[in-house]
Each structure stands twice: as C-alpha cells, then as structure tokens.
Amino acid sequence: MTFQPGADLDPGQVRDVRGRRGATGMAVGGGGLGLILVIAYLVLGGDPAALNGLAGTDGDVVGPGNTTLTTECQTGADANARADCRIVGYVNSIQAYWASALAGTDTPYVKSTTVLFSGTTASGCGVASGATGPFYCPTDKSIYLDLGFFDELQSRFGAKGGPFAEAYVVAHEYGHHVQDLLGILGRQDGSTGADSSSVRIELMADCFAGVWANHATETGFLQPVTSADINLALDAAAAVGDDRIQAATTGRVNPEGWTHGSAEERQTWFGTGYREGAAAACDTFATSP
Predict the structure, then answer these.
(1) DSSP secondary structure letter of residue 16
(2) Between vectors from CA 92 to CA 155 and to CA 98, what angle results, nearest 5°?
(3) Are 129 and 55 in contact (CB under 8 A)?
(4) What band does 152 get if pLDDT is binned at 50, 70 and 90?
(5) Across the chain, where does the E strand assignment appear?
(6) Cα–Cα distance between 60 and 144 in angstroms, integer?
(7) Are 61 and 158 a contacting pair, CB within 8 Å?
(8) Domain boundaries, the chain
(9) CB-side exposure of 185: number of CA atoms within 13 Å?
C-alpha cells in the first residue's frame, strides 16, 4: 500500500525521542495502569522479572533533542520514502477516521500521541523498552513504539511484514485508545485464559483495527487498500497469536495463559472489523472469542 503523494501529514501527532534514554521509579504492573505494559511484554515471551528490574531504575531522559520528523515528514510522498514518516501517516489516518466515527456521539474523539523511541524511554505506565513491544498507556493516553519491533515481527515471529502489517499494529494500539475513551478498557480485570477479559479487550482492538482498514482510503491519506494489504495485516495478526507465540517460545500451547487470543481469533476479529466497517460489530464481550 502507498500514501497519496500530495497528502498533508501532521507530524505533531508523533513525538520522536529516539536516541534518548530514560526511566521512572514507577512500578510496572501495579493495579490496572501497568497491566497493558505487562501484557504487551509477556505476549512477546519476555521475562516478568525483567520488568521489575526496569521499573526500579531511575534517571532522566538524556540524549539529543527532537529529531527531524517535523521538517522531513510533510507529505504522503515522504511517508512512501521513510519508515518513520510512514508511521506519521498511519497515525494521521487512524485518528482522522476515529474523529469522524465518534463525531456527534456522547464520546468525542480525543487525539493520542504516538511516541517513537529506541532502547528505553519513560512512560506513564513505567519504563518502555524495545522488549515490551508496542503498547498503549492509559495513564498518559499515549502509544509507545520502537520501530525495531517490525523487524522482530518478521525475524522472531515469522510474519511476512510489509507496510500494512505495520499499519495493523499501529491501528491495534489506537484501538486501545478508543476503548479507553469509551470506558471499555477498564473492563480488563487482569485475568488470563482463552475466555478472559484480557483476550476480549485485545480481540476488540484487532476488530477496531479492521474497522479503520475498511475506511482508511476515505481519510485521504492512503491509496486504495488492496487484498494483498489485508493479507499482510492478517498474517501479522496470526503471527502474534498467543498459541503461535507459546508454541515458538515454550514448545507447547496453554490456553489458560492467553492474554491476546489465538492466531485464528485475531485474524477472525480483524476480518470482522474490516468486513463490517463499524465498531458496533466488535463487541467481543457479547460472544465467545
């Protein structure tokens, strides 16, 4: 997929702190606020003890100042040429869609900032590191993303990758922001298992990503989405299914430990959102995952 070359990008929706490092003294995993970070980390096969060690670090953000997104990510042509500008374009498109979709409802859309980082950085939910994978932090209403995750998606999890696989990941995290605005994210109670609230929350975010994909071209940023694009998104969704990750990291599948849903479920719910094109089709709490 490609961007409309003349589309105007708004790099102000993305904060770039790559090249910096930082930490906070806030514990990760306490209550519901750190749960998103913990789940994002564990689903990638991380060691929970490492999170505690990171959260105990203190220090200030150091390193160079802001990078050149503001000057170098101005148009869709820039998004077609640069990976970081491509993320700016996705964020712009996704937020434009949800602002339109929620307009006139009791819950108007409020923009969320995506933070691009490398290594580690401070977030309202504790320390973000490349090992956690992308995540949404409800405390500061921001999404954290290390672009190196997309290499991991291919090399570690066997996804085909590609631009629309990246778009799926970003749209999934913005799905959590929409859930937060709608008051749905609070229904996550920290339980695990194939029928848990955690899985239902994650599958709903997959479905919301599919809803955006249905309307992506309408936002004016993207050229028409193709079946090949959707297949790359479906491939990425399957690659991060709990069963696929468990089989790859432990050699066995244990549904009682699931937090995001199986590969098939993640594909199914993304497909539902894409086919129906409406958030109303994404009520994963009303049916079996």
Answers:
(1) E
(2) 105
(3) no
(4) confident
(5) 14-16, 113-116, 120-123, 126-129, 135-137, 142-145
(6) 18
(7) no
(8) 11-286
(9) 21
Give the C-alpha separation, 88 to 65, whole Å. Answer: 19
Assigned token pair, 63: 């390193």
Exposure string over 81-117, b if 16+ CB within 10 A, otherwise e: ebebbbbbbbbbbbbbbbeebbeeeeeebeebbbbbb
Cα distances from 217 to residues 205, 263, 278, in angstroms, run 20, 26, 15
The overall average pLDDT reported for the chain is: 85
Sign of the alpha-carbon torsion through 248, 250, 251, 253: negative
Confidence of residue 32 (pLDDT cuts 50, 70, 90): very low
Q: What is the pLDDT of residues 212-270, one digit of tens each?
A: 999 999 999 999 999 999 999 999 999 999 999 999 889 999 999 999 999 999 999 99
Beta strands 135-137 and 126-129, pairing class: unpaired
- Residue pair 269/277 in contact by the 8 Å Cβ criterion: no
CA distance 55 to 127: 6
Contact 136, 123 (CB under 8 A): no
What's the rounded mean pLDDT across residues 61-72?
61
Model pLDDT for residues 102-127, shown as the tens digit of each residue: 999 999 999 999 999 998 999 999 98
207, 280 Cβ separation under 8 angstroms: no
